[in-house]
Design brief:
2 domains; 13 helices; N-(1-d-carboxylethyl)-l-norvaline Dehydrogenase, domain 2; alpha/beta; 8-stranded mixed sheet; Rossmann fold
Length: 325
């Protein structure tokens, strides 16, 4: 890569994450086969429950939900009973997996703790990328042990997801005494742990959302503009180009940059912006933001000389002022 690599951050120390109440931080002993319950039968919860069952763990209960959730659990966890969240928590003597939306997580955990559904020594794990261990404080107060276990993958909630779990990374935040169990669970799921400090969870999740979610938006924006240009099947045009660009970016970093911005072709970019403003004005602002960030990275990587970037940056700045006016 042209841009210098920053040193990889060390795995978080025990002091970086809240204690679960263990006296010495020494690794804890758990049975090889865990008794597991899943609160939240959405796409992630049902798939991870099925993966844990396939790894030999005893998944005993999951929560009921919408018609889609029932169909999903019937397909992925056909022999697992559906119960209330409190009953699932009581049945999960070893591991309770909480797979609910980020904004609902704190309320669900607090409700289970306040209702007496959690037990001392039980591991309560959530699968949120945005949260660390702090959101599990009510569970810790009830004597449970906290674990944040986020799969870095997009889910459809179908059996196809099980094959996609092979080799993926999990963002894990855990007290020192739970690290061996966390590593074993990730291995059972066929994944690789990435140890994330409590304070770094929002940055970790922002990076994943920026890369994956915004990629979907970017691809669909490109497809829409190709349709505007008269291309009947934009996915056929984009598929080989985008696959090559993604592979090159992952392999080469900023050395994969190509196109008018990386060459400083101000006239081409100006024509892009003029036609976008006339055809799809809602695409002008995101194009500008990404073009400016691309220029910054190209300059920092040495692929675009500052002197060659002056006209380009002027075009971007001038269009920005028109848009803001």
């Amino acid at each position: 890569m042209s841009a210098p690599l920053r040193p990889r951050a060390a795995a978080p120390r025990a002091a970086d994450v809240p204690s679960s109440g263990a006296a010495s931080g020494a690794p804890l002993s758990f049975p090889r086969t865990l008794t597991v319950g899943v609160v939240g039968a959405g796409r992630v919860g049902a798939v991870l429950g099925a993966a844990l069952a396939a790894a030999g763990h005893r998944v005993v209960a999951t929560t009921d939900g919408s018609g889609a959730s029932r169909a999903r659990t019937a397909l992925l966890l056909p022999r697992v009973s559906r119960r209330s969240a409190a009953d699932v928590a009581r049945a999960a003597t070893d591991l309770l997996l909480v797979a609910v939306p980020d904004d609902a997580l704190a309320g669900v955990v607090a409700g289970l703790a306040d209702g007496g559904a959690l037990r001392p020594g039980q591991v309560v794990a959530h699968v949120s990328g945005a949260h660390g261990l702090a959101v599990l404080a009510p569970a810790v107060a009830a004597g449970a042990r906290p674990l944040a276990l986020h799969p870095a993958m997009t889910f459809t909630g179908t059996p196809d997801d099980l094959a996609r779990l092979a080799g993926i990374s999990y963002g894990v935040t855990a007290p020192a005494e739970l690290r061996p169990l966390a590593a074993r669970l990730v291995a059972d799921l066929g994944g690789v742990p990435e140890w994330i400090g409590e304070a770094d969870r929002p940055l970790y999740h922002a990076a994943l959302a920026h890369g994956a979610n915004h990629l979907v938006t970017l691809v669909n924006e490109a497809a829409d503009r190709l349709r505007d240009a008269g291309v009947a099947q934009p996915e056929k045009v984009l598929a080989p180009l985008l696959r090559a660009a993604l592979e090159n970016a992952l392999r080469l970093g900023d050395d994969a940059l190509t196109g008018p911005v990386s060459r400083g072709d101000a006239g081409t970019v100006e024509r892009h912006l003029a036609r976008l403003a006339a055809t799809a004005p809602e695409s002008v602002a995101p194009y500008l933001a990404l073009a400016r960030r691309t220029a910054d990275r190209a300059i920092a990587a040495g692929r675009l000389r500052p002197v060659d970037a002056e006209s380009l940056l002027g075009v971007l700045a001038g269009i920005r002022r028109e848009v803001a006016a």
